[in-house]
Amino acid sequence: MTLIDILIVVAIAAVSITLGFGLYSLFRGGEFARSHSNKLMRLRVGLQAVAIVILLVALFLKGQGG
C-alpha cells in the first residue's frame, strides 16, 4: 500500500466515525444533541472535503502514471 492509499482509508474511516457519533447524538437527543449535533455535522462536512481532495490527488497521480 502506498501513502495515498493509507490516507484514503484513514479519511474514509474518519468520516464514518464522525457520522456514527453524529447519528448517536441525534438518537440520544436532549442537551447532548443540542451541544454536539451541529459541531459534529460541521466536522463531518470538513472531513468529507478533505477525503474528496485526497481522492482527487490520487486520481491525478494515477493519471500521471504514479
Structural class: mainly alpha
Secondary structure tally: strands: 0
Gyration radius, in Å: 15 Å
Low-confidence stretches: none
Oligomer status: single chain
Task: Please give the count of helices.
Answer: 2
Taking the alpha carbons of the first and last residues, their distance comes to 13 Å
Largest sheet: none
Q: What is the helix fraction of residues, given as a range?
A: over 70%
What proportion of the residues form beta strands (DSSP E)? Answer: under 5%
Task: Explain what the structure shows.
The structure is a single chain. Helices cover about 90% and strands about 0% of the residues. The chain has about 70 residues and is mainly alpha-helical. It starts with a helix and ends with a helix.
How is the topology of this model organized?
Blueprint: H1 3-28, H2 30-63
Helix pairs in contact: 1-2
